[in-house]
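Late entry, calcium ion complex.
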Amino acid sequence: MADAIGLPSETSRYMRSIQPIRRRSDLGRFVALVILSGAALSMWGSAVAQAGITGSTGAVNVRAAPGGTLSDGSLESDTQIQVWFESRVGNAGSQSFDHVGAGLVNNPFVIGANRPSPSTVIVGEGLSYMIHIDQTTDTTAINYSGTVTFSAPILGVWFTTGGLGGSDAQWKPAGLTIGTLTNRNWDLSPNGAARDFTISTNLRTLTINQQNGVNEIDQIRVLINPEPSSAMLAGLGVLGLAALVRRRRKRDSRAAQ
Ligand SMILES: [Ca+2]
Ligand SMILES: [Ca+2]
Ligand SMILES: [Ca+2]
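Prediction complete; structure with ligand written out below:
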């Protein structure tokens, strides 16, 4: 026996009997997806609260941005490299970095390997971070080492006195005044005590080694691509769910034919 659409009646009965079960499990999957999307969004929210630094090792102290005036002696430590989130700029335009790209940089000269690679990059939204060393004792040089890992690729860095000074106005934290910072450049040297930095192949981890001299400052400003905004993520989530529902409807209508 066959039913009206030509299926053997046993098959048709069987399909009718399993349909409600499948619908119920579809609903379950949909609810689970909504819950998971919510969980993912809230996890992303906590990542934003950490302002894009996902990890650090060694002598790195991730802290809040200082206030008042940042100058020689205002933020000292004999053991820790101070790192803080500076600011987010919505449309940063074109930025002339002292260096872009992965690899070791320890050569202050323009000839040879491991030298800086300056480049101008068009940046949309950007997040900036300051890496700052200023020793307390100031009687002999101190070596510092550590790593900072970011949630998004490093677009470029400024580490020369000119580059740091030139990018202050756009990227320093709101309300912070930059005072006298003696020799604030990040020194480079292929010899002796390591004075270098390395950007990892995936552009997310910065490895830093520096010797901080008596009454000397060492700084790097790092710019990263921001994470997508929560509104955009939520929008993508809704689009994804809509696509899923459309696909299910199509499949169901095919199955019913
Ligand atoms: Ca000092
Ligand atoms: Ca130094
Ligand atoms: Ca320096």
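The radius of gyration is 27 Å. Will revisit in the morning.
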